[in-house]
Amino acid sequence: MERWNGYQSAHKFWESRYFPDRDVISDFKRMLEEVEEAKQEASFFDGSPESRQALGEEMADIIISSLGVITQLGLDVEGLLEKKLTKTYTKYPVEQ
Ligand SMILES: [Mg+2]
């Protein structure tokens, strides 16, 4: 999980450098655009290396744009992930 805070710090710097006027709403719009791009790639997905690469890049764009929203809101990405995963795994435990 440590990497997430590193990604978030790097992303915060990158956004302040290239998109200093971006706000939460514009980051949400960007995230939705990336979801649409991923859906488009998924509709063409055929399992080939090229297709996997293209869809993977769009999935990464979704994560990156989510980081933008989370960073804009001043939230801790690692804390959010840990709490949500714990909550989900508690609600839906794996049967053994
Ligand atoms: Mg994209």
Number of strands: 0
Total count of helical runs of at least 4 residues: 4
**Proportion in helices:** over 70%
Q: How would you state the average pLDDT, rounded?
A: 89
CATH superfamily: MazG-like
Number of domains: 1
Might you state the CATH topology name? Helix Hairpins
Low-pLDDT runs = none
Our estimate of the beta-strand percent is under 5%
Order of helices and strands: HHHH
Give a quick precis of the structure.
This protein is mainly alpha-helical. The protein has a single domain, classed as Helix Hairpins (Orthogonal Bundle), CATH 1.10.287.1080. The chain has four helices and no strands.
Word description of this protein:
The chain has four helices and no strands. It has one domain: MazG-like (Helix Hairpins, Orthogonal Bundle). Helix 1 crosses helix 3 (49-72) and helix 2 (24-44) runs antiparallel to helix 3. It has 96 residues and is mainly alpha-helical. The model has no long low-confidence stretch (mean pLDDT 89). The chain has helices at 2-18, 24-44, 49-72, 77-91. It starts with a helix and ends in a 5-residue tail after the last helix. Magnesium ion is lined by residues 34, 37, 58, 61.
Break the fold down into its secondary structure elements and pairings:
Elements: H1 2-18, H2 24-44, H3 49-72, H4 77-91
The structure holds magnesium ion.
Magnesium ion binds next to α2 and α3.
Which features characterize this protein?
binds magnesium ion; mainly alpha; single chain; Helix Hairpins; 96 residues
